[in-house]
Amino acid sequence: MIAREKGLEPLAEMILSGDFNESLESLAKSYISEEVENEKIALEGANDIIAEKVSEEAAYRTKLRNEIFEKGLIETVAKDEEAKSVYEKLLFLRGAK
Question: pTM, whole model, 2 decimals?
Answer without folding.
Answer: 0.64
